[in-house]
């Protein structure tokens, strides 16, 4: 090969790399099934080898650790809100219109923890304001409670402060990042009782799914008595489950009355 051809080929190669090419394909096909199961990685003494996916795992771990530090640094609810607003490790934030932090009366005996904001919540920046929220208000009113009730108010929040795209379920990584904020939120709000609404909330606070099996049974979450219940959105889709929801509301009322 002449020198000019060599430099021309090298320039073409550099151009391909700039375009994002990461792998060369030869003229002879390669049968991947005949390759060894594990490729041997050569490394220099004392050097670290980055395995596939290791960078992604490191980023996830860093996100959770950053969330833990940010949450613990908040000394009151306003600081916690500010910490969430400044938290940039969760991709959900980029697609949401508003941070949905809380509603109701901070310091109330009952703290309700839902799953994630929907369309109306994302637009208004308040949890439980759509159809599911309207049903929740009617449920609470049935036992003489409410967001701004004079004698028996409640405090309401969600596991996720940002709306997931198309209302999809959050990933396990997203839940792991938000869990320190939820734990800190509970510690700062100091409720006497938690109401855990829906599977995502149960997964976050209890490490379990299966709300049909969990609902109605008093448990403990972060040191606070907790009652898992059906999410109001589920009750809208499954009206026959309202009987169980009513039983859970009566259980909540009795718990508060009996201390």
Secondary-structure map with pairings?
Elements: H1 3-18, H2 54-72, H3 77-86, H4 92-95, E1 103-104, E2 110-114, H5 119-124, H6 131-142, E3 154-158, H7 172-189, E4 193-197, H8 199-206, H9 211-214, E5 219-221, E6 224-229, H10 232-237, H11 242-258
Helix pairs in contact: 2-7
* Low-pLDDT segments, ≥5 res: 38-44, 47-55
Give me the count of strands. 6
Mean pLDDT: 87
Please bin the fraction of helical residues: 40-55%
Which oligomeric form is depicted? single chain
Shape: elongated
| Portion in beta strands | 5-15%
Question: What is the overall number of helices?
Answer: 11
Report on the biggest sheet. Answer: 6 strands, mixed
Secondary-structure element series? HHHHEEHHEHEHHEEHH
Distance between the termini: 89 Å
Helices and strands: which structural class?
alpha/beta
Strand order of the largest sheet: 1-3-2-4-6-5
Question: What is the CA-based Rg, rounded?
Answer: 25 Å
Describe this structure in words.
The protein is an alpha/beta fold and 259 residues long. Helix content is 46%, strand content 10%. The protein has eleven helices and six strands. It has helices spanning 3-18, 54-72, 77-86, 92-95, 119-124, 131-142, 172-189, 199-206, 211-214, 232-237, 242-258; strands at 103-104, 110-114, 154-158, 193-197, 219-221, 224-229. The protein has a six-stranded mixed sheet, with helices on both faces.
């Amino acid at each position: 090969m002449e020198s000019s051809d060599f430099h021309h080929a090298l320039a073409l190669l550099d151009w391909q790399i700039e375009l994002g090419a990461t792998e060369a394909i030869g003229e002879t096909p390669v049968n991947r099934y005949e390759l060894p199961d594990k490729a041997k990685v050569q490394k220099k003494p004392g050097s670290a080898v980055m395995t596939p996916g290791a960078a992604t795992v490191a980023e996830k771990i860093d996100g959770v650790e950053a969330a833990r530090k940010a949450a613990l640094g908040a000394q009151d609810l306003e600081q916690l809100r500010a910490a969430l607003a400044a938290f940039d490790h969760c991709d959900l934030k980029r697609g949401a219109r508003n941070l949905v932090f809380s509603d109701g009366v901070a310091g109330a005996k009952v703290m309700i923890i839902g799953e994630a904001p929907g369309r109306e919540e994302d637009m208004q920046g308040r949890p439980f304001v759509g159809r599911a929220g309207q049903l929740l208000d009617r449920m609470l009113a049935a036992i003489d409670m409410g967001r701004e009730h004079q004698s028996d108010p409640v405090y309401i929040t969600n596991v996720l402060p940002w709306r997931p795209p198309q209302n999809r379920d959050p990933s396990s990584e997203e839940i792991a990042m938000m869990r320190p904020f939820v734990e800190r939120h509970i510690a700062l709000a100091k409720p006497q009782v938690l109401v855990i609404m829906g599977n995502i909330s149960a997964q976050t606070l209890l490490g379990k799914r299966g709300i049909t099996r969990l609902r109605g049974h008093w448990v403990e979450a972060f040191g606070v008595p907790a009652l898992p219940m059906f999410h109001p959105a589920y009750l809208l889709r499954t009206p026959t489950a309202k009987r169980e929801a009513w039983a859970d509301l009566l259980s909540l009322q009795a718990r508060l009355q009996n201390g």
